[in-house]
Amino acid sequence: MYNYNIGVIGGSFADKKYCNIAYEVGKKLAENNCAVFCGGKEGIMECVSHGVHDSNGMVVGILPGENRMEGNKYLSLTIPTGIGYMRNFLIIRASDAIIAIEGYSGTTSEAAFAITEGKTVVSIGNLQIKTKDTDGKLVHENDPEKAVEIAIQEAKNFVEKFH
Amino acid sequence: MYNYNIGVIGGSFADKKYCNIAYEVGKKLAENNCAVFCGGKEGIMECVSHGVHDSNGMVVGILPGENRMEGNKYLSLTIPTGIGYMRNFLIIRASDAIIAIEGYSGTTSEAAFAITEGKTVVSIGNLQIKTKDTDGKLVHENDPEKAVEIAIQEAKNFVEKFH
Amino acid sequence: MYNYNIGVIGGSFADKKYCNIAYEVGKKLAENNCAVFCGGKEGIMECVSHGVHDSNGMVVGILPGENRMEGNKYLSLTIPTGIGYMRNFLIIRASDAIIAIEGYSGTTSEAAFAITEGKTVVSIGNLQIKTKDTDGKLVHENDPEKAVEIAIQEAKNFVEKFH
Amino acid sequence: MYNYNIGVIGGSFADKKYCNIAYEVGKKLAENNCAVFCGGKEGIMECVSHGVHDSNGMVVGILPGENRMEGNKYLSLTIPTGIGYMRNFLIIRASDAIIAIEGYSGTTSEAAFAITEGKTVVSIGNLQIKTKDTDGKLVHENDPEKAVEIAIQEAKNFVEKFH
């Protein structure tokens, strides 16, 4: 069994800088025996999957379509859902804590949903959610190694509090 | 049949100012023969339902639980889902355009999801989503009558573009 | 407000006999002030919608796609979901009791799910579910007027028991 | 990567005979490098998980609640969903082919949904679905080794046809 389920979210486009960060995040999560959940497609999703893959870890793609083949080539497991972008919220439900790397409205939506569900989001990059109930639930940390450390600690807190 | 499906989203707590605005929004939507979709509970959801009710309109509560009785007393129809806050995204899927009134992380999540799905959000109050893909899809308008006008125009555009 | 939410399920193809029955079921449900939930498409779904429509009732189409225009022309409300046939289970969640009219594997799936969720299915036609937990939850009644009466009584029991 | 995703469905109660069969099915699927998807709880779900576990395979529990701890102790991965029994249909969406072992209305519902979605169900035990569209999609085979062989062949056909 894996220590924690960590969701990694971000856009389907990623520039070189954030792709490298996502790759590092994936490697570190795998080295810490975490199962990584993502949307399974391109961009940040593919970069984090690549990192997990290169550390022989577990990376699960929760896919929007009904076709397993739409997943990127680094995934350990492909889970088609057929519910489109609503699959984003299954990633959040599956995860004990979340790391958000850059991203657009889809990432904002997922991250805000995580906060609504009482889970912590560690943000690397531009994510901004300014509502009264985000205090302490949205943590900004641009160093990938430290972001992984915080996410694991928050996952531990979540699992202990919840159970 | 109703002209358009308009989603009205906002927090389960509402102060007097925003409750009055939500009530006005509900009245105007009903007067324009729109079916109103909301989360069916308290706060902004109840205030908008009240306004629709007082104009003899149609207001649908998409409920988080499995119990129809959890809906507020102004709803025309109660639709329990049993999927918790994931029901938020069914409200967005059901709607041609959205009006967001204040709100917290849950409202941010819904609004950002709407933008991801190509639907316009008219914001009354504090909502902020700052990603590159929101341009033109998030409109700020604090006057309830004008917000309803914009939402109806955007719903019209959405239906025409999509079909 | 409507007295009960009644789901009417059945195939997207219907021969004349069962279409007439579905039409009668729709009329009777509307005359008894029930909101009718269905899949919103052709076949049995369209026939029951027609009946509700001709009695000025409320018939809601929970649609598989993201396009409101895919609903049949008799619907009072169109609710697109974008989750494909998984929308079948939202119809069951929305309903206090279910009437199944003929149908194929999709109808069997919905009816069995209703039983799993503790709701009664009144079957007109060929539906067969032979498991140990269906006793009393699957009622066969081929007369549409009597089937509606039973469904309303079971909806009443469900609402009272649950609340 | 695993060769195929195979869903194994069945009741949350299992007598010794069917528990042993489920265990054998789990072992054989793991030996054939298939990822096994199940509901993650007791009964048949636990027995099949045990078999996969003892062959060092991959068994994923798609859980009804929001709590990862509700899964049985043999699971490789726990995926909480918070959507109750609607999680059944995510198991079907995730799978290329399905093996049904005994079961009640919940299993019938899942199996019928699989058929609706064009996937083959191999039934060990009592499952009966008698609709016109099940022909060839519901295969009865009580020998666990042969049932696994058929399921893998059908998964292969599904993946090839779909892609």
From TrEMBL, chains A, B, C, D:
Gene3D superfamilies: 3.40.50.450. It comes from the Archaea. Coiled coil: none annotated. This is TIGR00725 family protein. GO terms for cellular component: cytosol. The lineage of its organism: Archaea, Methanobacteriati, Thermoplasmatota, Thermoplasmata, Thermoplasmatales. Signal peptide: none annotated. InterPro entries: CHP00725, LDcluster4, LOG_family_nucleotidases.
